[in-house]
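pls ignore typos typing on phone
flavin-adenine dinucleotide + seq
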Amino acid sequence: MNDAMQGGDATPFDFLLLGGGLQACLIILAVRQRQPMASIAVIEAGERLAGNHTWCLHDGDVTGPAREWLWPALSARWPGYTVRFPGYLRSVPLSYSAVTSQDLGERAAAALRQGPHDLRLATTGQVLDDHRVQLGTGEVLRGRRLVVATGRADMPRNLGGWQTFLGIELVTPRPHGLQQPILMDATVAQVGGFRFLYVLPLAPDRLLVEDTCFADAPDLNLAERRQGVLAYAERHDWLPAAEVRCETGVLPMPWRLPPQPATNHVRAGVAGGWFHPLTGYSLPWAAAVAEHLAQRDPGEPLGDGWRALQQQHRRQQRLPLLLNWALFRMAEPAARTAMLDLFYRRDASTIGRIYALRHTWRDTLALFAGRPPRGMARWPRRWPLTPALEAPQ
Ligand SMILES: Cc1cc2nc3c(=O)[nH]c(=O)nc-3n(C[C@H](O)[C@H](O)[C@H](O)COP(=O)(O)OP(=O)(O)OC[C@H]3O[C@@H](n4cnc5c(N)ncnc54)[C@H](O)[C@@H]3O)c2cc1C
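k done
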């Protein structure tokens, strides 16, 4: 379908998506499930949908009807994972799943083709107003529901720390034998901040191994991290292995968030602040937003339901913002390890609620009860409860 038929001066698209990453792909899947014949246009700067990532989530992060279209899209699922700290090793019985860019991009492209659509790859767009986007070519597309999901491209300067990582997908020479992910192995040398290795067993002979750091600065030394991954793989007898893919990330771990801009179009994905400030995960909230939009007539204003969803998310972001503040403002790097160590000693349901941003007041109090970890003199007398949410742009 092209502009002559829809989106330009003619009938607008039902959904006009600027950005074709994780959030846009989930909206495509949700809309095809709830409104199969809705017209969808996607404008993506890259050469393909979904970019180059492996996205994970705790299964409990997503509840309700979004599971109908998200679960079939998942690439791998595990009943639990392990965490390793210098003093202990623990298996956490929380089911955990992954979806690769390759799988999600192909599924979203196939779903698009099942109804009226227009997919513009290698094309950038700029928002003109609440219903129109101008492409790099000068062409203008119109949509009844404009969704801006351009990722971090236009996020303001970060206030807080950073999660920096490099991951390599390896094909091992023999079955690696790892049954479930290692979410955090903090028994490795601590350099540059709180450092840990993360491993996903994607298939019996395939692993994604990531060298991650909670650091004060957004620097990522690619050669050093690559060496970290390979040394870890060697230690576990996973070499010599073929390297099939590499991904990198520099994700903000803020203790403040910018105010929500007042627009009548939707800002979704991380561009709209829909992420977990401590873990950087955004998939669960991208799924919730996709389901919300797909259930509504794209010609109707979103109104109170949308505002309530936004407010609830902002409220639940407060605890992880505070934890980031404690991690980066109060703790020496060694105390960061102790904070995470304490966190993973909690019962699985508490860990699950905090990952899902469904924690209770009781969870918050329990986290800060008792003596602070080694390396922190004391908890502050006054927590930055109010300034934690909004930061100047
Ligand atoms: C390597 C990596 C691994 C991650 N792992 C996880 C994980 O396991 N679980 C999890 O929940 N989160 C994870 N995250 C965090 C977060 O979920 C991702 O950043 C996620 O991709 C954000 O989704 P999004 O749709 O908001 O943005 P993106 O997926 O980044 O998509 C934005 C898209 O918009 C396009 N774009 C930008 N500007 C324009 C423009 N002007 N015109 C047209 N197109 C434009 C970009 O090319 C991009 O494809 C990870 C992040 C990274 C970097």
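The mean pLDDT is 91. DSSP finds ten helices and 17 strands in the chain. more later
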